[in-house]
Amino acid sequence: MAGMTFADKAVLVTGGATGIGRAACVAFARAGAQVMIGDKDAQAEETVAIIAQSGGEARFVPTDVTDPAAVEALVAACVAQFGRMDAAFNNAGVLPPQRPIHEVPVDEMNLAIDVDFKGVFYAMQSEIRHFLKVGGGAIVNTASVGALIADPNMSVYCAMKHAVSGLTKAAAVEYAQKGIRVNAIAPGFVVTPMTQHWADSADFRAAFFANNVSGRAAVPDEIAGTVLHLCSDAASFINGATIAIDGGQTAH
Ligand SMILES: NC(=O)c1ccc[n+]([C@@H]2O[C@H](COP(=O)([O-])OP(=O)(O)OC[C@H]3O[C@@H](n4cnc5c(N)ncnc54)[C@H](O)[C@@H]3O)[C@@H](O)[C@H]2O)c1
């Protein structure tokens, strides 16, 4: 079986400044990859430093994924810096405030559409153009359990994550014959800067864990392994899948 080594490979990660993206960047580097990070938050420099401290190689290019030209430049920077791009993890995202549908302001809706859906779409366009030139590659998109089920007061996030899952399937069937695999991950509750307010709320924790068979949230490292697997040759026959990493939440 082909292994999960990324020696002599380069990967691109969006949203690598913190949380799940940072954990994936560090794990990719530990597995031998050179890592190109696109994020709008300069905390991505800390991710680069963490990787450098353990002898790995990463670069950060400030990137707003809602700007297709910026994402195109990010892919170009990866290829210019490392001479290649073998896989991409489209992970940047935002979580809008929780509100019922009739109270969602238009600007909050548009931001989630722009980052959580269009940001993934633009990144995939640029990545696929590159992979078509070099004969293949692997893409992993970050969806959510919100792509599989709905929770109250998360309508736009849930709709956009369903869209990411649908886009993942669409790309998988369009490009399977071109050597490009496209999959998505659907994490459950992971403690990151995005969800720290949930982790800090005793009421939220009690309500969430009462309905969750695992009885706890994940840490970002528990998500990174599946990202690496899907980007590796070990996942050569996984295509178009949205894989739940949710401690059994959606099985219950
Ligand atoms: N934490 C969870 O419980 C959870 C569960 C399911 C899915 N997710 C998804 O995981 C992904 C990562 O989230 P996280 O939990 O690690 O949170 P996070 O806030 O730590 O990470 C999100 C990253 O996206 C970046 N980002 C946001 N808008 C951007 C933009 N316009 N351009 C470039 N970068 C941008 C942020 O700067 C940050 O680095 C998101 O797509 C999120 O929706 C998170």
Polypeptide structure, described:
- The protein is an alpha/beta fold.
- It has one domain: 3-Layer(aba) Sandwich (Rossmann fold), CATH 3.40.50.
- The chain contains eight helices and seven strands, in the order βαβαβαβαβαβαααβ.
- A seven-stranded parallel sheet has the order 3-2-1-4-5-6-7, sandwiched between helices.
- α4 links the parallel β4 and β5.
- α1 packs parallel to α2, α1 packs across α8 and α4 packs parallel to α5.
- The mean pLDDT is 97.
Summary of the model, kept short:
The protein has a single domain, classed as NAD(P)-binding Rossmann-like Domain (Rossmann fold). The protein is built from 8 helices and 7 strands; from the N terminus they run E-H-E-H-E-H-E-H-E-H-E-H-H-H-E. The chain has helices at 19-30, 44-53, 68-82, 106-134, 155-175, 196-199, 202-210, 221-231; strands at 10-14, 34-39, 57-62, 87-90, 137-142, 180-187, 242-245.
Topology, element by element:
Blueprint: E1 10-14, H1 19-30, E2 34-39, H2 44-53, E3 57-62, H3 68-82, E4 87-90, H4 106-134, E5 137-142, H5 155-175, E6 180-187, H6 196-199, H7 202-210, H8 221-231, E7 242-245
Parallel strand pairs: 1-2, 1-4, 2-3, 4-5, 5-6, 6-7
Helix pairs in contact: 1-2, 1-8, 3-4, 4-5
Nicotinamide-adenine-dinucleotide (NAD) binds next to helix 1 and helix 4.
User: What is the CATH architecture term?
Assistant: 3-Layer(aba) Sandwich
Q: Care to count the β-strands?
A: 7
Strand portion:
15-25%
How is the biggest beta sheet arranged? Answer: 7 strands, parallel
State the CATH superfamily name: NAD(P)-binding Rossmann-like Domain
State the domain count. Answer: 1
> Helix proportion of residues, in percent?
40-55%
Q: What are the low-pLDDT stretches, counting only 5+ consecutive residues below 50? A: none
CATH topology: Rossmann fold
